[in-house]
């Protein structure tokens, strides 16, 4: 029997976590203020009340301790879901993630599995102070042994968090915090249905003039740019990567062979980033199909600025359209 509900990204994550906890008593949630408060973004709202303090744990302010504890719980057969309150707080836990979480499955030749999910609200646009608006996903995509995912809509949020929890490998699950409660992104979801696989790239808008590839909060920017470009007679194909490691670039290659042009879009700084990898791989695999070089529209190679300046830092519709014009003029 279907159960259709119209949900925001935030509510979809909440219901996805709830369903995972109902289906498997080994699923635990842990993090700073995730219990009584329901998380600073209210993503875990009501879960401690319904599942108890033994399964939804308010932790000390100690990211290294949160991740280290999750590693130990995973060894004992649990499936911990850790919330990092803001992406800039993840770095005290970087050693545990890179040295233990990412390595144990390989180090033990598969004898020890690491079914740990680390939820990371990321990206800018909320007018926050330093360490609250960063995009560190490329750092983790570079570490073998981790699966890195970034959702951009409510449907992928609901099914994606459940699929991440069911994975026997560690998953860093990046969530676009400024879109959590956007009414414009509400989507109708059959919460009792059977999902398609989320961890693969997806064409979210078809086009023929140029390809725009994005992930997380940048997907909405790409779709807005495509709508604006249509008024100018340009047809942009938009691809949501969804999985950042391992990258699923097959649909991107196919699209570029059709359009001949690619714009890679991300909030993260450009140097040594996912957009760098995308550009390199596309130019390697699609060289003879390209009508112009791969262009990138990204954040700048500076620390994230104060809130009054972030609208100038974040890639927007105009910067995407300018890149399209540059590509077409090549």
Automatic annotation (TrEMBL):
Necessary cofactors: thiamine diphosphate
Coiled coil location: none
Gene3D superfamilies, A to Z: 3.40.50.920, 3.40.50.970
CDD domains: TPP_PYR_E1-PDHc-beta_like (cd07036)
Gene Ontology MF: a single term: magnesium ion binding
The keyword Magnesium is annotated on this UniProt entry: no
Assigned keywords, A-Z: Oxidoreductase, Thiamine pyrophosphate
Entries under InterPro entries matching the protein: THDP-binding (IPR029061), Transketo_C/PFOR_II (IPR009014), Transketolase-like_Pyr-bd (IPR005475), Transketolase_C (IPR033248)
Pfam families, alphabetized: Transket_pyr, Transketolase_C
Statement: the UniProt record of this protein carries the keyword Oxidoreductase: yes
Residues covered by the Transketolase-like pyrimidine-binding domain: 7-182
Record-given protein name: 2-oxoisovalerate dehydrogenase
Species in which this protein is naturally found: Amycolatopsis rifamycinica
Phylogenetic placement of the source organism: Bacteria, Bacillati, Actinomycetota, Actinomycetes, Pseudonocardiales
């Amino acid at each position: 029997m279907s159960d259709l509900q119209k949900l925001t990204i935030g509510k979809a994550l909440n219901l996805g976590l709830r369903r995972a906890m109902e289906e498997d008593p080994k699923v635990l949630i842990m993090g700073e203020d995730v219990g009584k408060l329901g998380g600073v973004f209210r993503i875990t709202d009501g879960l401690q009340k319904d599942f108890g303090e033994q399964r939804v744990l308010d932790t000390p302010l100690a990211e290294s301790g949160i991740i280290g504890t999750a590693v130990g719980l995973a060894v004992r057969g649990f499936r911990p879901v850790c919330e990092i309150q803001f992406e800039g707080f993840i770095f005290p836990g970087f050693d545990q993630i890179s040295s233990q979480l990412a390595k144990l499955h390989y180090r033990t030749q598969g004898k020890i599995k690491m079914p740990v999910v680390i939820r990371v609200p990321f990206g800018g646009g909320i007018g926050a102070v330093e360490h609250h608006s960063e995009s560190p996903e490329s750092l983790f995509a570079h570490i073998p042994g981790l699966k890195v995912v970034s959702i951009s809509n409510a449907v992928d949020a609901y099914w994606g968090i459940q699929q991440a929890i069911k994975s026997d490998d560690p998953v860093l699950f990046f969530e676009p915090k400024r879109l959590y409660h956007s009414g414009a992104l509400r989507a109708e979801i059959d919460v009792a249905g059977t999902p398609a696989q989320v961890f693969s790239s997806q064409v979210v808008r078809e086009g023929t003039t140029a390809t725009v590839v994005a992930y997380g909060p940048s997907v909405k920017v790409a779709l807005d740019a495509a709508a604006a470009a249509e008024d100018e007679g340009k047809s942009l194909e938009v691809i949501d990567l969804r999985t950042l490691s391992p990258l699923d670039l097959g649909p991107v290659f196919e699209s570029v062979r059709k359009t001949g042009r690619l714009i890679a879009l991300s909030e993260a700084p450009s140097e040594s980033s996912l957009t760098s990898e995308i550009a390199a791989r596309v130019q390697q695999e699609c060289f003879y199909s390209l009508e112009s070089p791969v262009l990138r529209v990204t954040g700048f190679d500076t620390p994230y600025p104060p809130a009054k300046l972030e609208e100038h830092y974040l890639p927007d519709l105009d910067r995407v359209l300018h890149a399209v014009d540059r590509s077409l003029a090549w």
